[in-house]
Design goal:
There is one protein chain. This protein is an alpha/beta fold and about 250 residues long. It folds into two domains: about 35 residues; about 170 residues, SGNH hydrolase (Rossmann fold, 3-Layer(aba) Sandwich), CATH 3.40.50. About 50% of the residues lie in helices and about 5% in strands. It is built from nine helices and five strands; from the N terminus they run αααβαβαβαβαβαα. It has a five-stranded parallel beta sheet, sandwiched between helices. Helix 6 links the parallel strand 3 and strand 4. Helix 4 packs across helix 9. The radius of gyration is 21 Å and the shape is globular.
Amino acid sequence: MKKETIIGIILSVLALIALGLLVIYLTTQHMDVLFPSEGTFAERNAEAVILALHESDKVSESETSVPNQSQTDETEHSASGIFTIWVGDSRTIGMRDAVKNDDVYIGASGEGYDWLSANGLPLLKKAIKDYPEAPVVFNFGVNDYDNMENYLTLYTSLLDKYKDTHFYFLSVNPIDPDICKNITNEEITDFNNHLKNTFGSAYIDSYSYLLMKEAGTIDGVHYSGDNYRLIHTFAAEEIAKLETEKPTTR
């Protein structure tokens, strides 16, 4: 084989490797997971690092991002006063950015069941371990209606496993059908009905509340800061009422 041919093959292989590494890099950068900026996504995920704007002696500095004084001045406390773990997609991220309180938020933009089952669960388990008294609120479904049964199965298994943790299920909230074509409000209503029928009083119906308030989206799917705060206040107040009604088993 000619020397030029061998060199050409080697260069082609190196180019393919470089392309593969670039794809991996871009994929990980796309994940808007709520962690501190240090390390790669894989490293952060392996260590189950969560962003908790809450200083606690239960978590070491390497596992927690603590706000500085200027951040603290801008931070609101939960309307319910109950420290809460929120798990969801870009809507959860949007609520985190709008509310700026000291709750734990675990989420990824554009993701759903596959991300939750593979990446989100280790983070949730870590959060439950660190904050055993905190209720957990799920808010998935707008990105993958087809995974509805998978969500219900996974949620039920978590209820069975973590019997001392109070889980709540926030409705999938309305979209603007003139802009959003990935899911319909009819499908969202079906998803919400399954959540309500499966989990009863643990279902939080912010969908109907937003319709009553005529709270629209800014792009068909996502909400303004004011509307995210509206959702958070409603959900937090519902959780506060439900928490006072539940017997303490902890």
